[in-house]
Amino acid sequence: MIITWLGHSGFRIEIESAVLLVDPWLTGNPMFPADRRDDALQGATHVLLTHGHGDHAGDAVAIAKQLSIPVVGIYDLMSWMATKDDVQTIGFNKGGTVDLGGAKITMVNAVHSSSVAGDAGPIYAGAEAGFMISGEGQTVYVSGDTDIMADMEWMADLHKPSIGILASGGHFTMDMERAAYAARRYFAFKTIIPCHYRTFPLLAQDSSVLRAGLPAGVKVIDPEVMDPITL
Fold first, then answer.
1. What is the CATH number of the domain that holds 154?
2. Plot region of 212 (φ>0 → left; ψ -120 to 50 → alpha; else → beta)
3. Which site from 39, 133, 143, 189 is most exposed, i.e. has the minimal number of CB atoms within 10 Å?
4. Is 87 helix (H, G, I), strand (E, B) or coil?
5. Residues forming beta bridges with residue 90, ordered by sequence position
6. For residue 11, what are the β-bridge partners?
7. How many independent structural domains does the chain possess?
8. Measured at the alpha carbon of residue 36, what is the angle toward residues 32 and 37, in degrees to the nearest 5?
9. Can you give the residue range of the structural domain that contains 16?
């Protein structure tokens, strides 16, 4: 499995026969180098969205049309995209599992909000979500934008993810301290990759607090944009 950070909450995950672009916000992302766009999209098979906010879904339709690949996510948002933008979609909902190129993607709960920009203000975009992505003998928990949830207890017990991609920048999501608390209380991660941080001054700029709050033996990888991580 190869995981590549695209900045903010965007990731390219190569697993089984799938190349998943998770929340690939590229246009206007201050962390993403515009001249690496083609590299980020190379061979992508699906766009996978946790929710509708522009810093997650803003490039989804353009990428899907450029590559002729489907956007995958919660049913309400996918139905809206399919109708408004005439793009191929795969809509499902929490508790559901889809097979994307041999990788099994289960939608799980998150606690946040979800909307897209409209002329008269925000438009409801279905509920926010996270994903358990399983393949190649491993399960990755992509938290999406969320705070700590009691649901994390059963999610960890049922899915047993060894890799956590955790939103932990604070202000809009868990901060580093809260992400560490969630990880040590509910999960048994071997590896954690923080995200939704460093993008703006408002967000956490490093993972030192996360590291300090984790049990010994948990590896924290500070990702670098377009630097592949093999797990």
1. 3.60.15.10
2. alpha
3. 39
4. coil
5. 72
6. 5, 22
7. 1
8. 85
9. 2-228
